[in-house]
Amino acid sequence: MNVNQSAPPVPPFGQPQPVYPGYHQSGYGGQPGSTAPPTSYGAYNGPVPGYQQTPPPGVSRAPPSSEAPPASTAQAPCGQAAYGQFGQGDVQNGPSSTVQMQRFPGSQPFGSVPLAPVVSQPAVLQPFGPPPTSAQVTAQLAGMQISGAVAPALPPVGLGYGPPTSLASASGSFPNSGLYGSYPQGQAPPLSQGQGHLGAQPPQRSAPPQASSFTSPASGGPRMPSMTGPLLPGQGFGGPSVSQPNHVSSPPPQALPPGSQMTGPPGPPPPMHSSQQPGYQLQQNGSFGPARGPQPNYGSPYPGASTFGSQPGPPQPLPPKRLDPDAIPSPQLNELPPQQKTRHRIDPDAIPSPIQVIEDDRNNRGSEPFVTGVRGQVPPLVTTNFLVKDQGNASPRYIRCTSYNIPCTSDMAKQAQVPLAAVIKPLARLPPEEASPYVVDHGESGPLRCNRCKAYMCPFMQFIEGGRRFQCCFCSCINDVPPQYFQHLDHTGKRVDAYDRPELSLGSYEFLATVDYCKNNKFPSPPAFIFMIDVSYNAIRSGLVRLLCEELKSLLDFLPREGGAEESAIRVGFVTYNKVLHFYNVKSSLAQPQMMVVSDVADMFVPLLDGFLVNVSESRAVITSLLDQIPEMFADTRETETVFAPVIQAGMEALKAAECAGKLFLFHTSLPIAEAPGKLKNRDDRKLINTDKEKTLFQPQTGAYQTLAKECVAQGCCVDLFLFPNQYVDVATLSVVPQLTGGSVYKYACFQVENDQERFLSDLRRDVQKVVGFDAVMRVRTSTGIRAVDFFGAFYMSNTTDVELAGLDGDKTVTVEFKHDDRLNEESGALLQCALLYTSCAGQRRLRIHNLALNCCTQLADLYRNCETDTLINYMAKFAYRGVLNSPVKTVRDTLITQCAQILACYRKNCASPSSAGQLILPECMKLLPVYLNCVLKSDVLQPGAEVTTDDRAYVRQLVTSMDVAETNVFFYPRLLPLTKSPIESATEPPAVRASEERLSNGDIYLLENGLNLFLWVGASVQQGVVQSLFSVSSFSQITSGLSVLPVLDNPLSKKVRGLIDSLRAQRSRYMKLIVVKQEDKLEMLFKHFLVEDKSLSGGASYVDFLCHMHKEIRQLLS
Ligand SMILES: [Zn+2]
User: 768: burial class by Cβ within 10 Å (0-12, 13-18, 19+)?
Assistant: First the structure.
């Protein structure tokens, strides 16, 4: 056995580190991406700080030819399913309980919560005085107050954050709330494609966060090929309050006589705003930086602040002009003094801002590498660009947790209601600066494992008895060290070769698997890709078939490779179909391809073996000829009906006959109504929305696809589905197989070549080139005390512990939930080990191991200080999106609200300093939980607008199931970037603004993106010069609404905006088609749907309203 020590042993396939050259692909998720950079296998010596690695010799090739107009829509599958392949019987990991929606009793119906007039007042910034510890806003009406847990005060570097805080803010309804729109579709030609990743975000504000506090108002036939031969055409797809320093909330409104704190007599406009306000300072989370008590500084007004209660409030400057400053009078205000009438709204600037939290994290944590040597460290946010140094724990790019400090007992965990979950992305792509996991080859003996629980050797195993034995860190079993693995220990008990072995010093690494880890005890053959193309009338007419065939001619040169191989080991095959299937013999010795038609779709079989799956370079001429002929052969087809299940069956049977794993790429256009297994009917019925039967819209209409999926998984057959529907196609049913096999679904509604070409081709190229692990099984082991009980993602499980993935690519995540089964120990902490057994693109069998150590606590405050809200939301969204399969949507939504309220109420009760019940106190790490949860609640799946189709909902539901934390973050809370506010010369991405109409200036232009959609909003008063520079027209009125491509103009602004668009696209896993929206234009409704802090037309609450509602729920729990 040998690990690659100084002289790197070369594994069978030559290269330890896979290299996957291809089109340039960019990273995404705010972090630089890379196509698995090849790392040299080189010397692995030396401790932590830096394993040597050579620069990725990756050859980057230019994208294949054609590139055309952009397309539209989205994508996404998921599923569950199982077979175990981890070799020997494993113990550990208990059964996964099927957790349904019902964890908590229902919550209150969430209607429109009356908002209380709020008088908010930011803490006054004292330029010279001591730093303010917090700011606060008081809400009147319901006497509800919100305040953040506090953090240490920092030197007032100036400012505050966020827009200047102002007093009057709207409550309840922002003017012009967004309409609900359906997914954008169809537009014109595309833009250029970007690559690479954005640079690090420059710090925008360096003032450290401080405490935050705010108050809000409360409130079959013969099996014979029918023909063979050369292809021929035709054959054949409250009280007036004012500012109060500190987050100590103001006394209940009633306690104060009206006017007691208010300034002057009615008449003059109330002071609205102080330009010196530090505003609401976010506080730093205790997770990084020095640990803090729950609420340091709590209760102590900062010096210089006016005394609470007598707040004369010198006249303050008027608030900055807002786009829609109209104040909506609230009924309750009648009793208030006149001057307060304009203050009845909660100041949006006084409630936790996602933008500020993101910026602060970038500023505070973006410059230093995240070193994984310390147990329980909370990593930087997913929106922060940072590098990772593996010093014993898996990078957050592979695993992120809802909390890095978990309660020692199940009682504590139940009390807190904080889900304990890990979002795992085993084959995550890394930025070029970071090394891919080292591959360790232990030869014939295979990887060293614990005899009892089968955990793999890792840095946490304890060597004892002079190195002759080791104690398992997961189950405590004492194991003998095999002679060939023996090594002496140093005086600290550590093996002297620890730093020479990745499995003893790194959080992530790979083992070459032995034949014991292979199906049928046989090393696998290289995988195959089969392209299955619908050639029915719709597919031909839209231009899809011609476009696709043309693209494949060049794309086939970019199949995934590894180890610097000259060419891909992957073999390819081709099938076309409508009501019948056509197989093609593209054997290199043929002069022309041959077609074989199988019309017995009820009992699918593969009519040929030899010549169906071929090596691209060997059969290039025949393949090219085939791809040239397909569009011509079916050009005059009148066949409109298609089959679907038989197509998948055929692909799977072909892989089975070839004894290999692989992937099917299906390009499909319509509801499969032709007589065949898996035949579907149109069952779309919007009347079911908001009824107990709504769940049926998300369920498959037949069980045939689950059965088929199971067979596919057993064969290692992953299915990627590209849909091009003109109407309902029953995505919920068609995506079952992709979802259960670890595949992807892409949907291009009303596909037209001219409009959707760029988007489709971009997605296709990326999909075909991405690295995939085939025939995979993932197991998550944990140390004693907790175990994995539930799993979310695109996979299949046939037992309670093994996550089976016919295919797993670098974009897919599996979210795992843990539960206690015993008491944990603060000293030893808790360990997770994710082991993924898979077959590489070259056919090599490997094990990828990720380890992560977490802290355990006996104080709830420690839990709340080490949570990650973005990961919590990822888990909660997946939990809810699975819940809609079994429960009414309303029940699902109520469950989420209740859980959130319980989490926050537990904090308030056990961790926060005593304070008025009217005050809402949020844990620093969770202060965005309400705003983000509200975004989940008002998402298309849980609260659809009138224009969202059943297929869209099913599609999004499955997309989210496999998303990583960065993707769910931006999907639920879109990024809104002002384009003309920052200097044109600035090379960096402009700072985002909050997703609310109130933040839009009609004199500016904005980009909005959520990972799937991309809008360019143009204000009606934008300077004519800007319009000219960007659109090459002389006035706003001449801009074409719905435009999807910006003209290529030679001026700084045009270059900057187009560059930014390319950059945004490069960060995402799917191509985002641009849609230009003009202010006041009808398309604006579509855009406004993404302004998630506002009320939505479908009934979704505004952020402010939701926060009030959440406060009400919490108060009820506490009383
Ligand atoms: Zn063990």
Answer: buried
Mean pLDDT of 662-668: 98
Distance 92 CA to ligand 1 centre (A): 8
**Ligand 1 center to residue 90 CA distance, Å?**
10
Count of Cβ atoms closer than 10 Å to residue 741 Cβ: 34
Centre of ligand 1 to C-alpha 363, Å, is: 41
* SS3 state at 336: coil
Among positive and negative, which fits the CA dihedral 108, 112, 117, 119?
positive
CA of 483 to the centre of ligand 1 (A): 19
Against a cut of 0.85, is the pTM above it?
no
Q: What is the mean pLDDT of the chain?
A: 77
Four-point Cα dihedral 696, 701, 705, 707, nearest 10? 80
Whose tokens are 């006249």? That residue is 315
Residue scoring higher pLDDT (261 or 1118): 1118
Ordered by where they begin, the domains of the chain are 445-507 (2.30.30.380), 528-770 (3.40.50.410), 868-972+1098-1118 (1.20.120.730)
Is residue 709 within 8 Å of residue 741, measured between CB atoms? yes
Q: How far is the CA of 388 from the centre of ligand 1 (A)?
A: 28
Q: Annotate 504-526 with b (16+ C-beta within 10 A) or e (fewer).
A: bbbbbbbbbbbeebbbeeebbbb
Evaluate if residue 1084 carries a pLDDT over 70: yes
**Are 37 and 432 within 8 A, CB to CB?**
yes
Q: What is the pLDDT of residues 1010-1055, one digit of tens each?
A: 999 999 999 999 999 999 999 999 999 999 999 999 999 999 999 9
45: left (phi over 0), alpha (psi -120 to 50) or beta: beta
Distance 478 CA to ligand 1 centre (A): 8
What separation in Å is there between the alpha carbon of 472 and the centre of ligand 1? Answer: 5
**CA nearest to 432, candidates 833, 846, 63, 17:** 17
Neighbours of ion ligand 1 (CB under 5 A): 450, 452-453, 455, 472, 474-475, 477
**866 close to 287: Cβ distance less than 8 angstroms:** yes
How many whole angstroms from 915 Cα to the centroid of ligand 1? 47
pLDDT of residue 566: 85
